[in-house]
Specification:
Elements (H helix, E strand, L loop, with lengths): L24 H5 L2 H4 L8 E7 L17 H4 L4 E2 L8 E2 L3 H4 L5 E7 L6 H10 L5 H4 L14 H8 L9 E4 L4 E2 L2 E2 L15 E2 L22 H17 L1 H4 L2 H17 L2 H6 L7 H7 L3 H15 L3 E6 L2 H4 L9 H26 L6 E6 L3 E2 L19 E2 L3 E6 L7 E3 L1 E2 L6 E3 L4 H11 L7 E3 L5 E3 L11
Parallel strand pairs: 1-9, 1-10, 4-14, 5-8, 5-9
Antiparallel strand pairs: 2-3, 4-13, 6-7, 10-13, 11-12, 15-16, 17-18
Helix pairs in contact: 12-13, 13-15
Length: 459
Amino acid sequence: MSTPHATRRNFLQAGGTSLIAGDFLPTLYGRAEDAKLRTPRIKSCLVLFQAGGVSQIDTIDMRPQAPANVRGEFNAIASNVAGMPVCEHLPMLSQQMDKVCVVRSMYHRMLCHNPACYCALSGRDVGESKAVSNQTPATPDDYPNFGSVVSMYRPAVTGLPSFVSLPFLLFNGTAQTPGQNAGLLGSRYDPFLLEKDPSQPGYEVDELQQREGINSHRLADRRSLQEAFNRRHTRLSSIRDSARLNVYYHRALSMLNTPRSRTAFDLTGEGQATRERYGMNVVGQSTLLGRRLIGAGVPFVMVYSPVKRIEGLSWDTHTENFPKLKNDLLPPADKSLSALLEDMDQRGMLDETLVIWMGEFGRTPRIGYTQSNNTSNQTGRDHHPYCYSIVLAGAGVTPGSYFGASDKDGWYPQTSPIHPGDLAATIYDAFGINPKQTIYDTLGRPHRLCEGHVVPGLF
């Protein structure tokens, strides 16, 4: 069976005029008929991004009747939804399956991590040569992360960031993974990045801590002095980097002067029992902080896990797939995701928040099968973008259900194939954002926001 083909990127090549503050061009150049917002179905989205690629065969789309080199070493157990079994090493998640929809028919063609992450986080494919290259770095011409688009059209109330990502940036070697930032929309819509492990004792966000003796009045005076200086030196105001810094200054001062913003990042506001329920590790506490930020009013939060640079963990299980999953990867995922679903349900947060648990691709159904340019051996599973699974909850998702199906051994979608571009279109539509509208980069050039299609009935 051939690999499903995704729609190619369709760059519009019309020219544009450069303005002084390039990061503001999307709004200056926007067309009213394109940018008109519809009534949103959701207010927020929390993405738990499982970097490296989760083995769907060993977690939520198992094959207990398949040959041993497909089904693997783990057994399936019944969940609290009849007909929706999960891996035996996900016992806590098994009791929360009545809150989720498992999409078993995701696909794209990016075989390596950086281009696959870019596709998963922006909904865009890259060219043929880049699709098989891990050294695909982030550039200012990249299409934006979902959160950056939401930040542009559905900004948070004053004092809160509109898009937060934590607890680190993704890299593959020395190349920063594309798709994490605003790209062509300009740095104004980049996420507020927290590069710190929230499970560490004394965790606090340094950027939100005021120095001793610096109160809100002194901060306002400093800002006024800076603005006066900029006005007297008109050349400064015409420099693009200066315009970008002004955005950061405004954002930082707004957050410093808003107690609600500082409180949102303060995990000491959570009881110890709640923190332990999520897990006292970087995955659990990052997930809890994500929930806390959503509850405070941040529209889009991206939590990356596991944290390879901090804990030596990765879902990229080319070797020793089963011991790594059993001992290192599944326990914190099981605890944190099940806690999040239970917690958000009890708080009534799933009514207006979309939760997505996903990676950039899945793993090969056959153990030891090599199809990427990475080395696999007989104890692991290689990259598999041609059919993989994600978990959705909240925001109109049909709870306790499957959407789409993979074929007999899980190589390709059998029904309802969904490309990340389709997921992007559906996310934007849920926020009341027209996914087919024209957006403009920092040089004023037009681009189609999304090439995917809204998936009816997904959420």
